[in-house]
Every structure is written in C-alpha cells, then in structure tokens.
Amino acid sequence: MNIRIFIAVALLFISQSIFSATTQPHIVILATGGTIAGTAANTTQTSGYKSGEIGVQTLINAVPEMKNIARVDGQQIANIGSENMTSDIILKLSQQVNTLLARDDVDGVVITHGTDTLDETAYFLNLTVKSDKPVVFTAAMRPATAISADGAMNLLEAVTVAADPNARGRGVMVVLNDRIGSARFVTKTNATTLDTFKATEQGYLGIIVNGTPQFETRVEKVHTLRSVFDVRNLRKLPEVVIIYGYQDDPEYMYDAAISHHVDGIIYAGTGAGSVSVRSEAGIRKAEEAGIIVIRSSRTGNGVVPVDKGQPGLVADSLNPAKARILLMTALTQTKNPELIQYYFRTY
Ligand code: GLU
Q1: Domain termination residue (choose one: 226, 258, 284)
Q2: How far is the CA of 217 from the centre of ligand 1 (A)?
Q3: What pLDDT, on a 0 to 100 scale, did the predictor assign at position 4?
Q4: Of 30, 57, 265, 269, which residue is most buried, by most CB within 10 angstroms?
Q5: Backbone phi, then psi, for 313, in 5-degree steps?
Q6: Distance 187 CA to ligand 1 centre (A)
Q7: Cβ < 6 Å from ligand 1: which residues?
Q8: 167, part of any domain
C-alpha cells in the first residue's frame, strides 16, 4: 500500500476510535457477587455451587461485546451470595450509586447481584437514588461455568439498557432473560429457572429485541428523583424483622421482636393480611411498645386493604421482603403511622 494512503487510513482509524471512546456512554458496573460471579465443579451443575467467586474485571473481560455499546469500568462492592446481603452493604451501595450518578461523566450504573435477594436491594435503590440516570440490576441463574450460562447475555443487555437515553426516569430496573422489569414490582418467582423474575399483575417495563431495548410501560409509583427519602449521609438503617403467618403461629415471635427492641415488624400474613387471634395479640402488644407493624400478604400477589378493625398498617402490593425495605427506609424519617401508610400506598 502507498505509504501516504496507509498513514491517512491509520489516522482515520485512530481519530474514529478516539471519537467513539469519548462519545460512547460511560457505564459503571458495581459488582456484589451472586451466581453471575459463580463457578461450579462441572458444566452441568446449576445448584450447590459457589457464588461470588469471580471479580468484576473478569466479568467485564468475559463480555467484550459491551465495548460496542459503552465505555465500561467496574468497581467491586462485595463478592457474596445475596442471602448474605446486609442493610449496611445496601446502604453503602446506594451511597456509591448516588456519588457516581452525580458525576457528569457517568451516564448509568449496572449492578450485578445474587438473584435470591436482588429484588430487595433493587427496591431500596428505587427509593433512595437521587437521579433519573438509568440504574439496572442484573444477575444469572446459571453459574459462569455452566452450559448455556445466562450471565454474559444478561450483563450485555443490562449495559445496553443502562446506555439507552430512553431508559432514564423509569426508576431502578431489573434486566434478565431479555426482559426489563421495574424494581418496584418484579420478584424472584422460581428457585431454578431462567425466567424467574416476574411481576404477575404488572408485567414488564419492556423487552430487549435483538440487542435493542423496547420500552412498553412506565410505573406510577413514586421512585428515585421524586422520592422523599435521602440516605446519602445516613450511617445505619433501622431494624425491621418479618414474622410469618401460618396455622398455629405463636405469639412469642412478637415477644422476641419486642425484647430485641426492633424498630418495625412486617407480618407476612395469610391471605389479604388476615391475623390469627395469636398474631393479633402479638401485633397489638408490639404497637403498644411503639413498634410500627405492617400487615402484608404471603400469597405473592394482590393488595392488602386497609381494615380499621385489624391491627397494624398495610403493605399495599409489596411482598413482605420489599415491605421490610420500605419500612426501614420510611423509619429513617418518620414514626408517624399516617405518613408511613401514605408511603406504602404511593411508593
Ligand atoms: N444464593 C446465591 C445468591 O443469591 C445464588 C443465587 C443467584 O445468584 O442466582 O447470590
């Protein structure tokens, strides 16, 4: 090749790469562990493996296709199975996301997380992130070492959604299995299958078709920028426990919560939050001790309606685990039952 043509082509190539590097959206991946960072002993093992084994840079290196979409870099927040996630870590995560999104040079954040409690962390960020830039959770159901591992495609799709300007202002999202879910509504519905994240009543925000996000709906519930909750300078979240309702459920679970001086109790109630005579006695005793109690439903769907004859406040359509997240967050700013009930109706 003529030397001049060679130099011209080389300069064009270099200037194009510089141009695309500076114009690509900048997405930061915050890794917390889970199956997406998990390894198993063989390619067919999909349970009983070790989660939280692989570091964030290895995750990023495994999906070079992300470079076509965004400038991606990573930070390791934790490397644990999400059954070991704590309120201290989710508080730190929320603060780090707020710090990153306040920067002009960050366009969105992707968080990798174990699927088991992903919906709790995602909902906490939905309540406490002070930005309309995209925040996208992703995960995997199969460890990285399995045949047809789902983590790489889920990560690529999560980055694709986070890099899409149309993803702004939709609240925190959960992207797995080609679906875009709202953190307010989706939850893990199956212990082992890939299509586990669902919101039976509300569906999805959208889908990803051949690498392109296609949004279909928006959520009405208050989130992110419109949320009144601000935990950016908070050191500790209040303690809230969940007590399950079932035949013969004993009153002494409430005595234990009261003697541990918890700040709140979620009752994972039968049906529409109905209470046995024993749990009713326990809830009334907890309320007398100044503890806020929320009645939710263990059924997984539907709304627990306000019933003046029953003790406690109600969780609206939040599952017990997410009701716990909202009560912890609400208690950072008020103990007023009317205001807390208002938050449960609107967030
Ligand atoms: N129990 C692990 C966790 O929640 C693995 C589940 C998963 O990530 O799919 O992190």
Answers
A1: 226
A2: 28
A3: 67
A4: 269
A5: -95, 180
A6: 13
A7: 33-35, 51, 81-83, 114-116, 139, 141
A8: yes
- Active site (annotated) includes residue 43: no
User: Do residues 322 and 294 share a domain?
Assistant: yes
- The tokens of 247 are what? 């035949």
Residue 83: count other Cβ atoms within 10 Å of its Cβ. Answer: 10
Q: State whether 303 and 339 are in the same domain.
A: yes
Q: Which residues pair with 182 in a beta bridge?
A: 173
Flag whether pLDDT at 89 surpasses 60.
yes
Binned at pLDDT 50, 70 and 90, residue 46 comes out as confident
Q: What was the pLDDT predicted at 8?
A: 58
Residue 41 pLDDT grade (very low, low, confident, very high; cuts 50, 70, 90): confident
CA of 19 to the centre of ligand 1 (A): 39
Atom of ligand 1 nearest to the CA of 118: 4
**Residue whose CB lies within 8 A of the most ligand 1 atoms, among 35, 86, 196, for a mutation test:** 35
212/187 same-domain check: yes
Looking at the structure of the chain, the number of domains it has is: 2
Q: Looking at the domain assignment, is residue 8 inside a domain? A: no
Q: In what order do the strands lie in the sheet with 292-297?
A: 240-244, 264-269, 292-297, 313-314
Nearest alpha-carbon partner for 51 in 108, 96, 118: 118
Annotated catalytic residue, options 35, 46, 115, 117? 35
